[in-house]
């Protein structure tokens, strides 16, 4: 949408093709930034500007059925709720967006207390009692990446965990929060929030790729908990952390 507005503001006609019903993609699931900015307010304003711009034509619930031509002379057929539209254009911007990784480990999908960071953020925003009043929460970083299948760092996960940890500490300062990480990569000035989280007693424990945390659902004194076992490199011992919720 930002790209569409930039091009349209330079006087060029833009056709914005969106596969979903609403514009915004993953941003629709993000409610606040690490700095505390309101993402949904920004998104609403951006969508309004797109729809009100006279040079931007929006197609939602749309798929591209055919694309032909060459640089400066493309023809693309788009199927949407308007029917099939043939668009002649000189250039194309492919903005593929991103999908959230759904873990296949740590009981995700088997136990509803195990969440992704976006699902955690959604529950924080909604004020879910079970989460907000939890005694403890464990976050496990680098789930599904920096391995053989995905040998890269997503660059945003550490900041996301810090963001959610600080928000939970703001709501419930007594909650015990543990972040299990391989390397904390809060880039640039985000390092300040890492220090803030540490000062607010968010506990950070490093783990190695060949010694990942283990998670099991158990009962402790009649209370159902998720038991996370991890090796603390400083103590040189295995720790068992009983937690009410887990984010990965």
TrEMBL record:
Protein keywords: 4Fe-4S, Iron, Iron-sulfur, Metal-binding, Oxidoreductase
Molecular function per GO: 4 iron, 4 sulfur cluster binding; metal ion binding; oxidoreductase activity
Keyword Oxidoreductase: yes
Gene3D superfamilies: FAD/NAD(P)-binding domain
InterPro entries in UniProt: FAD/NAD-bd_sf, HdrA-like
Leader sequence residues: none
Keyword 4Fe-4S included in the entry's annotation: yes
Name of the protein described by the UniProt record: FAD/NAD(P)-binding domain-containing protein
Native source species: marine sediment metagenome
């Amino acid at each position: 949408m930002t790209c569409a507005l930039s091009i349209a503001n330079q006087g060029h006609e833009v056709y914005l093709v969106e596969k979903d019903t609403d514009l915004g993609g993953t941003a629709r699931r993000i409610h606040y930034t690490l700095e505390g900015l309101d993402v949904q307010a920004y998104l609403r304003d951006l969508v309004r500007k797109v729809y009100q711009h006279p040079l931007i034509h929006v197609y939602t619930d749309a798929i591209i059925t055919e694309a032909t031509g060459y640089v400066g002379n493309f023809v693309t057929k788009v199927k949407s709720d308007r029917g099939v539209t043939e668009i002649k254009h000189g250039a194309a911007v492919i903005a593929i967006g991103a999908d959230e990784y759904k873990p296949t480990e740590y009981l995700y999908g088997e136990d509803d207390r195990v969440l992704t960071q976006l699902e955690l953020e959604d529950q924080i925003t909604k004020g879910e009692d079970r989460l907000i009043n939890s005694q403890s929460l464990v976050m496990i970083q680098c789930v599904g990446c920096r391995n053989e299948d995905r040998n890269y760092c997503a660059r945003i996960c550490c900041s996301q965990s810090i963001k959610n940890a600080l928000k939970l500490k703001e709501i419930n300062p007594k909650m015990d929060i543990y972040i299990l990480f391989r390397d904390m990569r809060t880039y640039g000035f985000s390092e300040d929030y890492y220090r803030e989280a540490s000062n607010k007693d968010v506990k950070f424990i490093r783990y190695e790729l060949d010694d990942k945390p283990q998670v099991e659902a158990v009962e402790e004194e009649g209370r159902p908990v998720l038991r996370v076992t991890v090796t603390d490199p400083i103590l040189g011992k295995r720790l068992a952390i009983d937690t009410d919720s887990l984010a990965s």
